[in-house]
Batch of 4 targets.
Target 1
Amino acid sequence: LSGSCLSFFKEQLPLQQYNSWIKPLIFEIDGEKLVLTAPNSFTLRIVQERFLPEISKRALPFFSSPPKIEFRVEKRGSKVSMDHTKDSTSTKPPLPAAKTAKNQNKLNSALVFDTFVTGKANQLAHAAAIQVAETPGVAYNPLFIYGGVGLGKTHLLQAIGNLVSKKNPQARICYIHATNYISGVVRAFQTKNFDEFKQFYNSLDLLLIDDIQFIADKPGTQQEFFYTLNSLIDTNKQVVITCDTFPKEITGIEPRLTSRFTCGLTVAIEPPGLEMRVAILLQKSATNGSPISEDVAFFIAKHVRSNIRELEGALNRIEAYARFHKRIISIELAKEALKDLLAAQNKQVSLENIQKTVADFYRIKIVDLLSKKRTRIIARPRQIAMCLARELTQLSLPEIGNAFGGRDHSTVLHACKTIESLRNSDSALNADFNLLNQTLRG
Ligand code: ADP
Ligand code: MG
């Protein structure tokens, strides 16, 4: 992200402006949030006034939905640059890479197999995770788990760590999010502490690395990770990797690395079906101490379809609402508590409407839009329509893919990324997209 923003503005702005306003910024991804740190409040204000729209646009491909942006002003001496360049001007030597990794990445003891509900959507990933946790380094190495946001990848990763740690308290385990791994590499560069960094990772018994897609377009990190991965696998130390897409679909990662990702076992986690969503709600509400009835669970599950994180969010909201009003949870109460969400759904643009509007706009037939035809004249509008469906409906990637002639979720994701990046480089396409978007939103 940092690289993408920096290189974009470097091209777009006079050098002096770039050096004054953009270069000193630190871009960090924190979950679904973009954290933007400026060296002082003045720079921050300028950035907010002048560069925010472009920064938001650049950030989009790194998130599943438009991210919230949090602004910070750097505390003195606490700068940790994400820039790989050697002339990086850190005022105070940051923490050694390995130490930070140890401190930052404790396992979360709440994320265990016992609380992980299984169903058709995740049973393969679950079974593989259990096997890896029971016989680390023996069964599949690496285990590569991929799937969309909020579907339980981190939960499974942590569950593996917790089980291995329970069975073997001496095991050296590291759970790390890829963005923290990247920061670790950068810090090792800055402090010239590469030996310590390498030694830390190479001495692990179990490396759990989350959301590996973030190392795309970071050649330094990729090289480092390639060595670590090989060294661990060669010595039968278990590595588990999660990612938002199928390994070969990640762009910006060296082929030698993606091919290494797939040399163990690759498993997908799919969005849960209705019954599984109900099972999750029943389990979570029971764990929370306020079990809901099946009727209520079905009601929620029918309306919240995107992922498990959203499902949890809806349940929490209902529980809080019931507590506040001192009422028991019923469908009626669930309706009231989820009022906004349900209203938003009613207002939602339908997929059919998107397909028809895009087809009309480009003067092509809807059947062609849904067909297997791959000529540019059809394929581009199809990608635009998919991207609009992603933005304007609550449908999941597989649901969108399905509605576009039975394509799979990675095709939809690829379409969205392609259109996002074209919107930055092709102003005519961007204008078309905005017009369609506005028309559909009414
Ligand atoms: P991801 O890493 O794929 O984005 P998470 O692992 O963070 O998703 O899951 C989102 C939330 O949903 C977490 O609170 C997690 O505990 C919960 N969750 C995900 N999958 C399951 C499951 N199969 N059973 C119970 N809870 C789940
Ligand atoms: Mg996750």
Target 2
Amino acid sequence: MSGLHRSSSAQSGLPPQELLDDLCSRFVLNVPKEDQQSFERILFLVEYAHWFYEDNSVEKNPSLKSFTLKEFTTLLFNNCDVLKPYVPHLDDIFKDFTSYKVRVPVTGAIILDQSYERCILVKGWKGTSWSFPRGKKNKDEEDHACAIREVLEETGFDVSDLLNKDQYIEKIFGQQRVRLYIIAGVSDETTFAPLTKKEISEIAWQRLDDLQPTSDEVISRGVTGIKLYMVAPFLGILKAWISKHASSRTPKPDAPLRGISVWKAKNNSLGSSSLTVDTQQTKPAPDVPVVVDTGPGKSFRNFSFDTASILRAMEAAFLA
Ligand code: M7G
Ligand code: MG
């Protein structure tokens, strides 16, 4: 990353040293020790710092450049004294982080309307795919608790009173376990709006019939052409579940059901759509990112890593 020199940050759009110092101390140094135990965890902290930078610093000062996580990580490691010694290993650290991330189990929900003919899908901020609201488990978090939290973060809807711990569909994709709880009979009058910034760009009721065909493909296209991510493999079992529980649904015989967008980021900022929901909810406090611990030293197959020394250095930096 030789391009990331910061001699004249004002013109280059590169963040000034003070901002990087502030992000580093706030998100990486000034956190519980257990979050600094391995680089896999430290990179989750760096990711939080990156989100804060993109969502707050850049928003306040649009002349600051946007970065990919890899670029931002490089910048922080090069400009944060306690991380600097590890710059030579950054490629390995980053590779291990990304491969670790896809092994963390994911849970979420399949939210069905009262007719059981439509489900809630969310569209990511980057990219164009739709998926069920879902996300990675935090360390020691139970499957259903993670589903409730992720659905709340991504849709603003609290399923805690509706969730039945035994009603779920689970699939394994490579090394990742994905469990989706079935939450059926949700009113299509329900208001949805994500609590996180720049994670979700749109929320919609999508017709199950439009999401066909069922397949094992992680990435697929619905009949209307929309791109789907980790949706198709659940549809077969979902259809079977719906047939079995059909007696509790409320069919809507009058009008043919259509998919309907219920929240859109751009509409939201323009405030122009009647479907757009204003968020009275407040953004949750940034919780400490803790992930399933796979043991210290896991990510350092290719070089020797002295956990004690980085912890001492961080402690020193924190106390300074
Ligand atoms: P995640 O939390 O890594 O995945 O977010 P999970 O919820 O499935 O566990 C998935 C992607 O959404 C990230 O890689 C980011 O691109 C984006 N993203 C998520 N969050 C919470 C934010 C955020 O607060 N700010 C920004 N800018 N992007 C986010
Ligand atoms: Mg998440």
Target 3
Amino acid sequence: SLHDVDLLSVVPVMPVVVANSADEGVAIARALVAGGLPAIELTLRTDAALDAIRAIADEVPGILVGAGTITRPGHAKLAADAGAQFLVSPGTTGSLLHAMQDTGLPFLPGTATVSEVLAALEAGITQLKFFPAEAAGGAAFLKSVAGPLPAARFCPTGGITPASAPSYLALPNVGCVGGSWLTPADAVASGDWDRITKLAAEAAALVR
Ligand code: 3PG
């Protein structure tokens, strides 16, 4: 079932997307699916984000649509009610964790330090976001924590590029990486969906 989906195994690159309207979100989602990336993390950074999640869930068959940038506990239920199928937060507090857990949806709480990873493991959560990945230590950080904390598995996000993605994907504790490079602002603004499809196809071909 949806609640059992392994978020780290759906796609090698999770597209992190900002949508300025529901229609824009749907067009981006279709372009990503056409390129072979049937998943999207729609960030709650615009007024249109919840409408975009609802529209994508309704209008784009076969895509896994989640809500990103969950920074307040109240966001979790709003996103779930809008049709989000998973949740992602940039960091973790106790109340954020409980709010995401209460939805029953799969989720990736953000971590950036060994202590935060330990706290998540203590709460029984092994699938994590590592954010901001490049700024917080990059692939070297994840390589270092694989020894002492082998149970933790990550989706690193933040500053990752097509050039740096393979070094993350080669690590045993990385399932996928996240990034916004698939949806350049100028491509979105000009409606260049073919360019997004091409970037998605290149990302979909990355090997884990
Ligand atoms: C996120 O919310 O995960 C990041 O903003 C995405 O990071 P990037 O824009 O550096 O890819």
Target 4
Amino acid sequence: MFRHHDGLGRPVESRAVAERVGVLGGTFDPVHVGHIVVAADSRHALALDRVLFVVAGDPWQKRGQVIASPADRVALVRAAVEPVDGLEVSTVEIDRGGPSVTADTLEALARPDRELFLLLGADAAANMPTWRRLEETRELCTLVIVTRAGEPAPAPGPDWDVRHVTIPRLDISSRDLRDRLRTGRPIDGLVPPAVVHEIRRRRLYTPTDRDGDR
Ligand code: ATP
Ligand code: MG
């Protein structure tokens, strides 16, 4: 309960309205417009106050694949979300260090007056059975499965509190973007202009920078 004042300045008790926070975890190596659409459409569909892009520090299921540093990936996400209302970057996983485990992240973001919505693309949702601390994850959030039009939505167990959001099919992946950059093809339109600029400025994903994708 929060204390408020009525129109006459008298204190009144009213039920606290929980802040609704979306959590979009990812490697974001690099962030692209598919990620922005997932976040913005989910925010709209579920009336979320804001959506946090939680940048993975050490995505244990992608060992050996991540090629930009956490600081670079955070800078790219920051550039991507800055112009969009209600979208923010969170470094909670990077700051904590160690493997990125969703339940740990949700615990770190939990507050008494905050409701957490875990946003997952269909591919990420299909991968859930392999997650660590799955039971705890279920207790901590409402699951939001974001499917691309025409794609089947994976069904988590019956115990999960689930919402579904459908977005346009955007066949864009970070892996394809890394391939494009390595081979000198354009990425314009697939990532926000500010991200194109940051990638160039930081000389990321080019063969001269690293040996390229493994
Ligand atoms: P990679 O190609 O390296 O696997 P990615 O493009 O899939 O990268 P991730 O950082 O792995 O990006 O994804 C973060 C989240 O965004 C996941 O929940 C994933 O399902 C979702 N996602 C990624 N790309 C899209 C897309 N084009 N449309 C909808 N959701 C997406
Ligand atoms: Mg992926």
